[in-house]
Amino acid sequence: MKVGVVTFPGSLDDVDARRAVTIGGNEAVALWHGDDDLRGVDAVVLPGGFSYGDYLRCGAISRFSPVMASVVEAAGKGMPVLGICNGFQILCESHLLPGALIRNDHRKFVCRDQRLRIERTDTAWTSAYAPGAEVTIVLKNGEGGFVADESTLDRLEGEGRVVARYLDDNPNGSLRDIAGISNERGNVVGLMPHPEHAVEDLTGPGTDGLGFFTSLVEKAFA
Amino acid sequence: MARVVVDVMPKPEILDPQGKAVLGALPRLGFSGVSDVRQGKRFELEVEGEITDEVLAEIDKMAESLLSNPVIEDYEVHVEEHSVAEIAQGRTS
């Protein structure tokens, strides 16, 4: 499959995400924020970083970039979209996912290997994981606190849309330890930790993140 | 030209870590008597022409779609004669 990775001004992890896509067995295609052409890709990754300098709110300006109009339209038709960290923030600002990400409750940037439980495994991005799989992948954020009102949180839990949950310490004050969620359909997933930094033994805490990039292939041939 | 101000504040139920940081700093600097601080944003919009209901409705849309995130923030739109900079100049001159 062809997986597009969008580069916004201020994206940091677009190159790592493209590398992870390739290691996951897919073809990585570079997409540009100012171009609404998705170049025929089958899926899109919105990478981490500080798009538009996090001006106004994280993801608030990126939401109105030309490429996002196409991503929102394609997501509505079922195209798999994965937003990592800043990408998650952009998905929330775009209303593709509910809730918002606010500054960490302890006010410090956090960078560490984080244990997670993968709770939803029927999405386009997590089907490679066994239900309830406990994994360790990199977490690095300053504004990673997931918040939503109680009814939205209840709905996410009730519909099984919590994709990943923090284990051990909650690193950023996210309500109900939520690390990642999906839309109803399961094609759009937002995740605060960085699976693209955990795909090779040489660097990072291991290869636990690889499943996010191999799931597409498994799904396609399932 | 007229000026319209949009004030954006975190919703009361949303944690405001920045406000908390300021609140924590005040007593360390010797300021007392402040029991809570909430930090928000103020936008001063210079608007061409008269401020009509249509203009205000348009600014309301701006506030809702871009200037604030209604999931975590409330906003308020009001017409104001002076900017903060002008008021500050008046205070110092």
From TrEMBL, chain A:
Its EC number is 6.3.5.3, 3.5.1.2. Pfam families: GATase_5 (PF13507). InterPro entries: Class_I_gatase-like, PRibForGlyAmidine_synth_PurQ. Signal peptide: none annotated. Its main location: cytoplasm. One of its GO terms (molecular function) is phosphoribosylformylglycinamidine synthase activity. Keywords: ATP-binding, Cytoplasm, Glutamine amidotransferase, Hydrolase, Ligase, Nucleotide-binding, Purine biosynthesis. CDD domains: GATase1_FGAR_AT (cd01740). Part of the FGAM synthase complex composed of 1 PurL, 1 PurQ and 2 PurS subunits. Part of the phosphoribosylformylglycinamidine synthase complex involved in the purines biosynthetic pathway. Catalyzes the ATP-dependent conversion of formylglycinamide ribonucleotide (FGAR) and glutamine to yield formylglycinamidine ribonucleotide (FGAM) and glutamate. The FGAM synthase complex is composed of three subunits. PurQ produces an ammonia molecule by converting glutamine to glutamate. PurL transfers the ammonia molecule to FGAR to form FGAM in an ATP-dependent manner. HAMAP family: PurQ. This is Phosphoribosylformylglycinamidine synthase subunit PurQ. It comes from Nocardioides astragali. The lineage of its organism: Bacteria, Bacillati, Actinomycetota, Actinomycetes, Propionibacteriales. The gene is purQ.
TrEMBL record, chain B:
The gene is purS. Gene3D superfamilies: Phosphoribosylformylglycinamidine synthase subunit PurS. The lineage of its organism: Bacteria, Bacillati, Actinomycetota, Actinomycetes, Propionibacteriales. It is found in: Cytoplasm. Its EC number is 6.3.5.3. GO terms for molecular function: phosphoribosylformylglycinamidine synthase activity. Signal peptide: none annotated. Pathway: Purine metabolism; IMP biosynthesis via de novo pathway; 5-amino-1-(5-phospho-D-ribosyl)imidazole from N(2)-formyl-N(1)-(5-phospho-D-ribosyl)glycinamide: step 1/2. It comes from Nocardioides astragali. InterPro entries: PurS, PurS-like_sf. Belongs to the PurS family. Keywords: ATP-binding, Cytoplasm, Ligase, Nucleotide-binding, Purine biosynthesis. This is Phosphoribosylformylglycinamidine synthase subunit PurS. It catalyses: N(2)-formyl-N(1)-(5-phospho-beta-D-ribosyl)glycinamide + L-glutamine + ATP + H2O = 2-formamido-N(1)-(5-O-phospho-beta-D-ribosyl)acetamidine + L-glutamate + ADP + phosphate + H(+). It is an enzyme of class 6 (ligase). Part of the FGAM synthase complex composed of 1 PurL, 1 PurQ and 2 PurS subunits. Part of the phosphoribosylformylglycinamidine synthase complex involved in the purines biosynthetic pathway. Catalyzes the ATP-dependent conversion of formylglycinamide ribonucleotide (FGAR) and glutamine to yield formylglycinamidine ribonucleotide (FGAM) and glutamate. The FGAM synthase complex is composed of three subunits. PurQ produces an ammonia molecule by converting glutamine to glutamate. PurL transfers the ammonia molecule to FGAR to form FGAM in an ATP-dependent manner.
